[in-house]
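Journal club prep, shared notes

We agreed each person brings one worked example of a sequence with its structure written out as tokens. Mine is CBM20 domain-containing protein. I'm keeping it raw so we can talk through how to read the token line rather than staring at a rendered picture. Sequence first:
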Amino acid sequence: MKRLTCLFLIISVCLCQATAQYKVVIRITSLPASPQASEVFIAGDFNNWNPSDPNSRLQKGAQGLFFFEGSNVPSGTYVYKFTRGSWETVETNFKGQSIDNRTLTITSDTMVSLTIEGWQDAVKSAPPKVVSTASPQVRWLDTAFAIPQLERSRRIWIYLPANYDKSAKRYPVLYLHDGQNLFDAATSFAGEWGVDETLDSSGKGFIVVGIDNGGLKRMNEYNPNDHERFGKGEGREYLAFLARTLKPYIDRHYRTKSDLKHTSIAGSSMGGLISFYAGILYPDVFGNIGVFSPSFWIDPSLDSVIGQKVNNRLNKRQRYYFYAGQLEGQEMVPDTYKIANHLERLTGQKYPVRVNENGRHNEPAWRQEFPRFIEWLSVEVN
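Then the structure, token by token:
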């Protein structure tokens, strides 16, 4: 404890101005069975990303669980990862893939419980094998569908109802971003939404079109505006592709109900942001918009965009569904309410804002929420 307290005291000395200080408790509640961890360190922006800094070694409790307890920790946002003493032993996800840096924002006394899913050095000895979980109703429409607006291509997934080939019925269509994470654990980043399982079990008749994200281009394609850190915003071109290229193709080749009422779009995080923009910019195309854990923080101009673009006559015909998790950061829930309320004032409509008290910013949370969204969607669409 003295080592880590010392570590955070060093941080406080480095700060340019006086800040409030708080008690912080970090507990590791689960570790991979192999390789076994005899030591765990925190490496971050507070110690020059030193993976084996002796001052950042966690303590080990009586039950063998690692933890950190520190007082007088300065307020602020810290970026970090756990290691076992080197970058060859840095934490990963359960498939052995690298993960984003963790962040911890301290504005009061803080206690967090965390799970480490895997270690980098486990990949060579036992690469995890993940089998496909996609249902028979899921297929690839194309592995390289052209996006002329961006001069690149993308894999497109499609889910068809079980009785699609046995009837002449037409179906509503739901467009979803981050296609890799929708149907199949074998292609997902950190777990899938279970879209196919939800629809298979519910009997709700939807065609679902999943558009893979662009990997390194994801932040650009899901952001309509340029950003100092993430670069050129390509979201408007991406939305033009969905509305003017992909949707007409789907309507020509599948038995869809192509009108506004039966065309929906949804996504999470940056996908939630671009889904909201789809509704604002294409009120004649997308009638139902699912906004999950939206990254409104990245777009400080959004309020003014809403004021300029929302057309009372067109946008009041749409339905919006907002979702936010209480454990996604202190701004997620208030930002979501702020945007939903602004839209309500302009359209005169009321929109549900679902808050999950235990919701985190991850696929398991969105998978849990998706059936509720489908029920809401089905009230008007089916």
